[in-house]
Amino acid sequence: MDMLLKAIRHYIPLSSDDETIIWSLFRVQKLQKGQHLLQAGAICKNIFFIEQGLVRYYAIIDGEEKTSYFNKEGEFVCDYASFLPQTPSTINIQALEACTVYFISHSNMHLFYERVKYGERFGRLALEDVYVNLINQVRPLYNDTPELRYQFFLSKFPDTGQRIPQYYIASYIGIKPQSLSRIRKRMSGRN
């Protein structure tokens, strides 16, 4: 739980009383590779924090899986569009490898806001980060070539690229795996 507390401290200071409250509100869960934290159609009832492992976000569009994001150790995971209003999700969140996660329920998150001294500030700052990350993630899909999108992926996930299957990377940048292979070959020829 030290990694979780450090992630929260990135946004707000924590007293020992705050840490005790946090310990009481979060639970731990282990996931196997391939297991889902969330499936489309279900309501996202928890915010997760990855202590160990890697997950991907994806939707099924026209019968095909489209990967939209990845999260790794030290990051929060949630479909906020489902979590905040408590409405059914349109995305899936799946473990790409065995994961250990801490999670807090929707109702416990409200207790976090009330009981932790700067809890509401944490919620605001964390959601601001989510919003900025989302904008930065979507912009290249509309403005950049596939090669630039792949370079963006490499800069965004420099230490996890080898842990993600190539077909998920191709899906994330919006191309077929064969096109990704050609891009990687061209890029390796430059080195």
TrEMBL record:
Residues 31-105 form the Cyclic nucleotide-binding domain. Coiled coil: none annotated. It comes from the Bacteria. Gene3D superfamilies: Jelly Rolls. InterPro entries: cNMP-bd_dom (IPR000595), cNMP-bd_dom_sf (IPR018490), RmlC-like_jellyroll (IPR014710). SUPFAM superfamilies: cAMP-binding domain-like. CDD domains: CAP_ED. It holds the Pfam family cNMP_binding. This is Crp/Fnr family transcriptional regulator. The lineage of its organism: Bacteria, Pseudomonadati, Bacteroidota, Chitinophagia, Chitinophagales.
